[in-house]
Amino acid sequence: MKTFLALVLSISLGSAVSQDVKVEPTISTVKWLGKKATGEHNGTINVQEGTLEMDGNKLTGGSFSIDMTTINCEDLPGRAKTKLENHLKSDDFFGVQNHPKATFVITKVKATGSGVYQVTGDMTIKNITKEIQFPARVVKNGNKVEATADLMIDRAKFNVRYGSGSFFDDLGDRLIYDDFEISVSLLSK
Fold first, then answer.
1. What is the pLDDT of residue 8?
2. Number of C-beta neighbours around residue 173 at 10 A
3. pLDDT value of position 114
């Protein structure tokens, strides 16, 4: 299954000097997709803050955080929507009362081609940090930089256990797959 993480930045690039580019949360987005044996659900989570480190037109590092209390389901209406959102926020899943923020911190960026990178970083969910890697593509277009990458997260590694075949047997059609997809767009003003 292919997933997609899009980091889209609108920045002014000056000389090839390292600079921190502040992410603007109000115009940035995180989209999620979770699948289960009988279907799937999707939605959004608000970006809280972020910074990307640039050296000219090259990505060298950065981080961002998301506000887990803003988990939103987009594919269900009314009471079903509210019920799923509250369940995802509960201790069965992300326990947002005790873990209101999730973060990603880039620890290594390796150029693998023209505008293509292998990104390594630390993902923290529920105060559990795991290293993840994904390929990213960074393209400069005028004053804008667009970075895209494929990303899938295994929730079982972050002790998100509800309906997981990694923790429970014989779930049948109640099985919720461990891997979930995110698509992130981070923009600066």
1. 34
2. 8
3. 84
Integer Cα distance of 79 and 71 in angstroms: 15
Total Cβ atoms within 10 A of residue 2: 6
| pLDDT at residue number 167 | 54
In angstroms, the CA 153 to CA 34 distance is 10
Question: What distance in Å separates the CA atoms of residue 159 and residue 92, rounded to the nearest whole number?
Answer: 10
The beta-strand segments (E) located in 37-98 are 39-55, 58-73
Two tokens at 71?
């988990």
Give Cα 15 distance to the centre of its chain: 30
Residue 20 has what pLDDT?
Answer: 80
- Report yes or no: 32 and 47 within 8 Å, Cβ to Cβ: no
pLDDT of residue 165: 47
List residues bridging with 128 in a β-sheet: 125
User: Which residues on neighbouring strands pair with residue 184, listed in sequence order?
Assistant: 30
Q: How far apart are CA 138 and CA 54, in angstroms?
A: 11
pLDDT along the chain (189 residues), means of 10: 35 53 85 88 94 83 94 97 94 94 95 88 96 80 65 90 57 66 82
CA distances from 49 to 17, 79, 186 (A): 23, 30, 9
Cα–Cα distance between 35 and 181 in angstroms, integer?
Answer: 9
